[in-house]
């Protein structure tokens, strides 16, 4: 068995990675780190992980591969020595997602500790970067919102079918905010509530722009992105609104659907569906469901995607990346059926 | 006391009307109708209404004013004789909302029983039609989605500040679907779920178009509207995305906000807020909260509104209409503070 | 208008008091205090209270009556001078609920700052202490759990119908834990979850024992009380299990129900219902619903009560107390219909 | 691979069986039946099961083993011929759970079609009947409530440690009511609500009595059982209250815990925990968590259990039974880590 270390198992992404790997046929979690939980059994932090019988430690020790769920920026100091040692790493922060250090520093308000790594790291959205991952030692798992929106937009955007004016409206479960002791995430404040946020700009936006631009350089996409918290722990539903590009106005709904079906044919975890998807259909699974239609009154393409933010939008995508890095079957350990209802 | 009859108290809008009127200083509910519940105490259908000590009846009897929460189309036969008798009526169906019989018949797939009434009926969005309501005998209370979206868009649209390409993305609680025995609204299917629907077109869309067009005839608005069910009983949050109109591109965020504050200054139930509103801030109250901003990266105006679909988007708006019809204080019986948390 | 000051409006009980008093015909909230929020508009702490247009202050100033929602023990220093001044006070802490200073100190682990006040303060469960409240200057509003359980048990206990072995199993919404920044109350941890707690003893237990003992001194009740958090903000459902007392084993279910109906006949806010009550039937109202039955297989009386912990189990009960203290109609400002659904 | 047929895949237990078996290493679902869904792809009934690529059929056809999730009583006619053919069957109805035909008929109000099978069928609570299952062709999977309560009570009851007066108070998610088109299970009616039901007697009660009596014949247990719906799809938390039996009053909490730990030592899916369990810790897993304590004020043992009603209280227990019947590893295909949060 290949040994895996999980950095910062105390967060939801770390814990979810542990859950998923429990049934992975080729790897075994042998070390889990955490700051405040160090020295205690993992089951004290997360009773649902009691089957593991592992203690949380401060330093990861020797492992074959690392999945890091450390917080943004703060995590880099711990990660850099491991990168230097050449241990294969899947990193869940934004530290290595953006290719432009300027973009990174302007959105995250920190100086990047090692900008040269930005070009080496692979953006781990498997469906777009499958071929680059196997040879890499550092994969930056994508943000939860970019996963759903880029997968929703890529097929039409790549073909120049849609113009650059794009609205991305996301509805997310609360686990995206982490296991936080903040009154804003108190149950009472969020149950029965819809909360729009980050209207001045969300850090996941530059990932969307970067990935679309990489598919089709010109024109530059002009995305407005507004995320909304909805009262559920998991799941992101993203509704993308675009316009048909100049010269492509006669595209039919059938052509659109066919384009999407072809784009994702054979993908193990992206499914183009014929009725609007619901987040709950993906709960606990690594699936991203995509529905595309054309608003016949305005001729606007509308694409809806649904996924579990902690799986395909988080820990599951990370395991998919790890599988590719290690030469394992891409689907190993990953579910294609969610827990419903 | 003025006597009020509620038609179809069995639905959520009817029941909510009864709740609100319980504390109205000038009117008293003296008759409530229902089909299957007829002959039984109201408390059997709705235990929370037990304070009323009324039986549900089949026919409304003599009352001074009627609030009808009958279902679309099916309700008209019961309502027409009452209209003919000249009883003041607030109607919660779509039967009298649209001015164009063609639009009505194409969206609702029924022949209108009395098209000439469409011109006489007043669309009861108080903030836009306040002056027309007092003289009217028939007010069509607006749909829940148009209430939030038209109030969000009206100030900018009326001034020609935004262009005709508009995206309306709504997140609604489940009570909008009524007290329905349908597996789609079963608790298990919706809890922890976001469900987009009506992507082929929602019946509330023509109301939005009609009301915006009435404010500013040209150009015709081109709205894409997608509603999403989110796991909560009440509340609608609507996010509207537009573009600055040609020639208005230099509008600043401050100008936008000022325009909105002026537009709704003095309104008892529309509040322009300086931080993004949340649906739960309006629960049980007749408020509609509106937030306007400008996405500085794309220069797109984004307007967010929040309301309780059963109050300002339903029964509360109906009572506000009734107050105006009867010459009572517009705010009588209506709350400006919601139940939180 | 009588002026009211609310101490610690930042907590849910304080905020709920403000909501309720907004429509009270005889009193007006003129001063609201808070620690961290002092100097800021109330709407910043609670946007749903924006209609108030009040700033939070540090010191309450001159008011005719005070409702205190300060935290247990910590609040006493602020309250004592006001008590000494003779301002009528409704206090929502446990500081003045228990008659026995020993009991208080053993459960709350603090020295009571003024034990002699314990005998002067009235336990503000209106249905049991209605006559003592008008003459009092200090009313201790009951805990949320004792309200539901004592009202459920009192009629049978007072008559000696049930024996001393009593199980009280409560299911509570999360607002009982307050507006807390604690990861245990994070939305993700509680949504979709049932969490039993305080199995070693809950501080509301001695209130139950005290109030039952006051009704019928012997035998001493032997209560096991287990509260459980369920995923909703408001509401407590309490299921009480007892045995028929020796010599009363032939009591019929009809006799039981009659006893309860008589006990609460004429009560404006306690309703004995003929089908099991649900918490949501009371949301936002001051009602406590009670259902009594006899398990015919075991001959055990089972009594179920439902209420809104922030209203009849909190702020609403406090207003009811205040009304009685001030000689106002007991029901003034209080709703007998909840917000449903 | 062993072929499995699922009868009535349209219900939640059927669908959950399909989900679980998707990753079972030794068996493969080859046939799924349903009435109204017959002839359509399984993904139309349950989009989350789309990975299966199976059509729903009317008749199960040839399979090696059957898991039946047909409704009570109605299902027997379809099942009897298969029983006669000797196909190994795990049945999720109550049809074969009770040994006494009188009890069955009095609770279920139908004549049993084949009473002699009641003695042959094994009650599939693995922890109590592990040895009887391998040789059986007909296993009756237990009800969801008896699973949690019998596992909670068995260790103390078997040893005569607790007396016969037992209170079982359960809090259940809504999926226990099935995928029902009934207004009582409409989202709006249940969200934010606690609903006690079956106070006159619940059909799962005789299973509890039967199983406890089988462990210790005398005295007969006198159980009062009240289930409550709480607003979540999955999970049952059961709180059991008992008394120490005569002569055992000096039992300590340490002795109690030791007794429980010994009773379940080595059990793969029952875990005796040292802090009160929460339902969400079991979501999607086959675990039953048990916590035992002694209320030191009253000397009453209190036992709390938590499980996922669709897994250990349903489909998961059924797969555990199937594994034993077929001589497979008992844990095959079953998770010991839940989906959290």
SSE layout and pairing:
The structure is a homotetramer of 341-residue chains.
Chain A: E1 2-7, H1 12-21, E2 27-33, H2 42-45, E3 56-57, E4 65-68, H3 76-85, E5 89-91, H4 101-108, H5 117-120, E6 122-123, H6 126-129, E7 138-140, H7 144-158, E8 165-172, H8 187-190, E9 195-196, H9 205-215, E10 222-229, E11 236-241, H10 253-264, E12 270-272, E13 288-295, E14 300-307, H11 311-326
Parallel strand pairs in A: 1-2, 1-4, 2-3, 4-5, 5-7, 6-7, 8-10, 12-13
Antiparallel strand pairs in A: 8-11, 9-10, 11-14, 13-14
Tell me what the structure shows.
- 4 copies of one chain form a homotetramer.
- By secondary structure, the first copy, chain A, is of the alpha/beta class.
- Helices cover 29% and strands 21% of the residues of chain A.
- Chain A is built from 11 helices and 14 strands.
- In chain A, the strands form 2 sheets. A 7-stranded parallel β-sheet of chain A has the order 3-2-1-4-5-7-6, sandwiched between helices. In chain A, strands 9-10-8-11-14-13-12 form a 7-stranded mixed β-sheet.
- In chain A, helix 6 (126-129) links the parallel strand 6 (122-123) and strand 7 (138-140).
- In chain A, helix 1 crosses helix 11.
- The relative contact order of chain A is 0.15.
- The model of chain A has no long low-confidence stretch (mean pLDDT 96).
């Amino acid at each position: 068995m290949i040994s895996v270390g999980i950095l910062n198992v105390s967060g939801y992404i770390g814990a979810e990675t542990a859950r998923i790997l429990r049934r992975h046929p080729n790897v075994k979690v042998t070390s889990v780190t955490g700051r405040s939980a160090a020295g205690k059994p993992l089951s004290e932090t997360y009773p649902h992980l009691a089957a593991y019988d592992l203690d949380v430690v401060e330093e990861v020790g020797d492992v074959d591969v690392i999945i890091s769920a450390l917080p943004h920026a703060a995590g880099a100091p711990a990660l850099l020595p491991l990168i230097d040692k050449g241990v294969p790493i899947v990193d869940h922060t934004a530290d290595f997602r953006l290719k432009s250090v300027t973009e990174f520093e302007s959105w995250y308000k920190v100086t990047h500790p090692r900008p040269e790594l930005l070009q080496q790291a692979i953006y781990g959205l498997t469906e777009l970067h499958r071929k680059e991952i196997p040879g890499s030692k550092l994969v930056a798992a994508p943000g939860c919102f970019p996963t759903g929106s880029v997968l929703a937009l890529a097929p039409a955007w790549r073909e120049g079918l849609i113009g650059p004016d794009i609205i991305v409206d996301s509805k997310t479960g609360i686990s995206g905010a982490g296991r936080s002791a903040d009154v804003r995430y108190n149950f009472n404040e969020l149950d029965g509530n819809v909360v729009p946020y980050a209207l001045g700009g969300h850090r996941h936006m530059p990932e969307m722009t970067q990935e679309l631009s990489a598919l089709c350089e010109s024109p530059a996409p002009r995305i407005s992105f507004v995320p909304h918290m909805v009262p559920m722990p998991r799941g992101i539903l993203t509704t993308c609104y675009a316009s048909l590009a100049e010269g492509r106005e006669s595209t039919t709904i059938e052509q659109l659907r066919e384009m999407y079906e072809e784009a994702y044919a054979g993908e193990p975890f992206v499914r183009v569906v014929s009725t609007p998807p619901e987040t709950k259909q993906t709960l606990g699974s690594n699936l991203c469901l995509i529905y595309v239609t054309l608003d016949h009154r305005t001729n606007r393409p509308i694409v809806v995607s649904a996924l579990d933010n902690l799986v395909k939008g988080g820990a599951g995508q990370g395991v998919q990346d790890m599988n590719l890095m290690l030469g394992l079957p891409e689907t190993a350990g990953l579910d294609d059926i969610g827990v419903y209802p």
